[in-house]
Write a structure and sequence with these properties.
about 60 residues; about 80% helix; 2 helices; mainly alpha
């Protein structure tokens, strides 16, 4: 697999995991656990966007 393909696969895995965390947050009844899961999902999405931008040649990652 090429480096681009590996990067795309890793980005997709992060996005999939973020969706799983969001779904878990919606299922839990504990407000603190919900907050923790949503924050973790947000960080993963942010990281995946940064990696996606760098993989596409964008030298200025989102902040």
């Amino acid at each position: 697999m090429s480096a681009t393909g590996e990067s795309h696969g890793r980005i997709q895995q992060m996005r999939d995991k973020a969706q799983e965390l969001q779904a878990a947050a919606e299922r839990t009844g504990d407000p603190e656990e919900q907050k923790r899961l949503r924050e973790k999902a947000r960080r993963l999405l942010s990281l995946s966007e940064q990696e996606s931008g760098m993989a596409s040649g964008d030298i200025y990652p989102a902040e």
